[in-house]
Design goal:
Helix content is about 40%, strand content about 30%. With about 100 residues, the protein is an alpha+beta fold. The strands form 2 sheets. A 3-stranded antiparallel β-sheet has the order 1-2-5. A hairpin with a 3-residue loop joins β1 and β2 (about 55-60). α1 (about 10-20) crosses α2. The chain is elongated, with a radius of gyration of 19 Å. The model has no long low-confidence stretch (mean pLDDT about 95).
Length: about 100
């Protein structure tokens, strides 16, 4: 199986620094600020739409019945909220 390269927050900061007039520290603060704002918005159940990239939102899942692995015991999985992502058309087409 092919190993997938992982781009971490520090890598994003370095790439932002290379494409802007920001030094590495300033770029790291900018990247962190963007993610902090997104985190805060999602915890307040707001949508975060990034044109050309996609939309993050909070979705509710219903309570459902599942099967416990190994024992085959039927269990109830409680309702919860989760973060969803819908990819934009330009990104979807670029990844094809």
């Amino acid at each position: 199986m092919t190993e997938i390269e992982t781009l971490r927050k520090s890598d994003l900061a370095e790439l932002v620094s290379a494409r802007t007039n920001l030094n590495r520290s300033q770029a790291a603060h900018a990247v962190a600020a963007v993610f902090d704002v997104m985190f805060e918005a999602l915890t307040e159940e707001k949508r975060v739409a990034i044109t050309g990239f996609g939309t993050f939102d909070v979705r509710a899942s219903r309570e459902r019945t599942g099967v416990k692995p190994g024992t085959s015991e039927r269990i109830t999985i409680p309702a919860r909220k989760r973060v969803g992502f819908k990819v934009s058309s330009p990104l979807k087409n670029a990844v094809k």
